[in-house]
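Students often ask what a 'structure token' actually looks like in practice. Rather than answer in the abstract, let us consider DUF1161 domain-containing protein, a protein of 95 residues. Its sequence is given first.
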Amino acid sequence: MKPLKSVVALCALLAAPAFAATQINTLDTTGYTKVAALSLEQMGLPNIGDSKVVKAVDSKCASHGVAAEQCYFRVLSIVGDASNHKNIFIEIYKK
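Now compare that with the structural description of the same chain:
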């Protein structure tokens, strides 16, 4: 149950409205084109409002020429344990 709570907290973090990238889930990927993959290292649990992951996604979209309003991402996996997320793997899409 603890890993599930951590995933829910991370999803809430990644859906922060202050940035252009928008999180989607596996069912939403129909109609989207994958443009990149991203792997980030982040020690400890992400805090709600922590924007490092979303900023990295926005930066990757910009480097691939994807407009901010067309940038979407999906969290593939989080490697680590319930109290220390070490690696976060993300796919980046455009619509």
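One point worth highlighting: Helices lie at 2-14, 52-63. Ask yourself how you might have guessed this from the sequence alone, and why that guess would often be unreliable.
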